[in-house]
Amino acid sequence: xxxxxxxxxxxxxxxxxxxxxxxxxxxxxxxxxxxxxxxxxxxxxxxxxxxxxxxxxxxxxxxxxxxxxxxxxxxxxxxxxxxxxxxxxxxxxxxxxxxxxxxxxxxxxxxxxxxxxxxxxxxxxxxxxxxxxxxxxxxxxxxxxxxxxxxxxxxxxxxxxxxxxxxxxxxxxxxxxxxxxxxxxxxxxxxxxxxxxxxxxxxxxxxxxxxxxxxxxxxxxxxxxxxxxxxxxxxxxxxxxxxxxxxxxxxxxxxxxxxxxxxxxxxxxxxxxxxxxxxxxxxxxxxxxxxxxxxxxxxxxxxxxxxxxxxxxxxxxxxxxxxxxxxxxxxxxxxxxxxxxxxxxxxxxxxxxxxxxxxxxxxxxxxxxxxxxxxxxxxxxxxxxxxxxxxxxxxxxxxxxxxxxxxxxxxxxxxxxxxxxxxxxxxxxxxxxxx
Length: 435
Description:
By secondary structure, this protein is α+β, with helices and mostly antiparallel strands. It folds into two domains: 1-253, Collagenase (Catalytic Domain) (3-Layer(aba) Sandwich), CATH 3.40.390.10; 254-434, no CATH class. 16% of the residues lie in helices and 29% in strands. The chain contains six helices and 27 strands. It has helices at 23-36, 60-68, 99-113, 169-183, 195-198, 242-252; strands spanning 2-4, 43-46, 49-52, 56-57, 77-78, 89-93, 120-123, 131-138, 144-146, 157-161, 212-213, 231-233, 257-261, 267-268, 280-284, 291-296, 303-309, 322-325, 331-332, 345-348, 353-361, 366-373, 379-385, 391-392, 405-408, 414-420, 427-434. Helix 1 runs parallel beside helix 2 and helix 3 (99-113) packs across helix 4 (169-183). The longest helix is centred in the first third of the chain and has 15 residues, at 99-113.
């Protein structure tokens, strides 16, 4: 079953022109849209403006442009305007969402927060919100609608149809995540041919908001291959696909940092060091990058993300690296730093070495750090205990793992060691050092 995911509530009946000025221009827009292949129920007039795809206003020039465009087959598209990097926390006011809708909103927010983006998302009430989006339930509507960024800010409202109550939480999560995607600048992946996911429909065109291909995404749109397809199915999972993640990270990845999620699989920016911790999940920075942070999930007690400071810094080569295991006792390349986390097992690289990777077992116990010789001196070291709260020497990397506890070394500093609990194996503290 294919279901339209964007339905716009209208003040006038679709295709009727008695309630606004300039009917001739509107009629030409409608005629152009029909010629471009849009079915009548995909074209609406609201307050004298014509909408296509049920979420994007179409100007006369844009409707004419649709007729001149060739159909392309590139998948991920964005609008001309995006969200500014100064927006570091987007809050969602979903105070009227209850039951499955409330659960789905939480899961949609989690979808974005699982990626190391320039912004975090949170439900209100929350502190330090850069911008707040109002989430509204529209009774009787199946699907949702939203707008696109303007002035560096997300669109201010997402409308979610109350008719989705007959669908699963995953489907509602899908629709909410989709609409949130529009607010930060994503077009439909099949905007050029809505029949791909909807079974009918044509080219939405530029629509005056831009349709810019996101590099690195697939060259074809396919049913089920993107959460940003125009229409949804009754069995959606609500999760981003791999191409969605590529598009998000291309547009909004942390600058100068890379977050590596190794909670359930390896996340390595290089494999040149070989299988240095067999049987464990490994996070590993690339050559020229030190590890600078680590996060811990408060409820599951799983280690989630390792943070690398990106760039080809000659002080941090990836040569002569080795694993230092410390799951049953301390394993330290130097004791000059003293007992910097009493009562916890410590893995610490030598005085001229830095941590380039971290390993955890499939049972989520920290097992080892990857130590690499570098042009570092292991000076001015201090422990940052992050089991229980964030403990960050700097926040310039942004909110790189929202809702999880983060330990992080400051600008120009690196991880020289890591401690873990003796019972359960959760990480406890980072040893931050200066080169």
